[in-house]
Amino acid sequence: MSERTDLLYRLQAADFAAYDLMLYLDTHPCCQSALELYREKVNEAASLRKEYESKYGPLTATSSQKKTPWQWIQNPHAWERRD
């Protein structure tokens, strides 16, 4: 597995964990350990997203910093790459 693929999988896992914890917190809003873990996963996902985008380009149009944001689609999308 390439570094790019590994980084993308780690980002997806952190995003999934944060979302799953968010759903748990909807029914257990006073669970401090879940809230702490949720914050950790959100921060982890943000860090991984920043690292991925600095190395391989934006994952979404909204994270594109180019003057013409639609240039982000000129390369294969992260899920279309085969490396």
Structural features, described:
Helix content is 60%, strand content 0%. With 83 residues, it is mainly alpha-helical. Helix 1 (3-27) runs antiparallel to helix 2 (32-56). The radius of gyration is 15 Å and the shape is elongated.
Query: Number of DSSP helices?
Result: 2
Unreliable stretches covering 5 or more consecutive residues: none
Strand content: under 5%
User: How would a textbook summarize the main sheet?
Assistant: none
* Shape verdict: elongated
Oligomer: single chain
Mean pLDDT: 86
Radius of gyration: 15 Å
What's the SSE pattern?
HH
Structural class: mainly alpha
Number of strands: 0
| Percent range of helical residues | 55-70%
Measure the end-to-end span. 7 Å
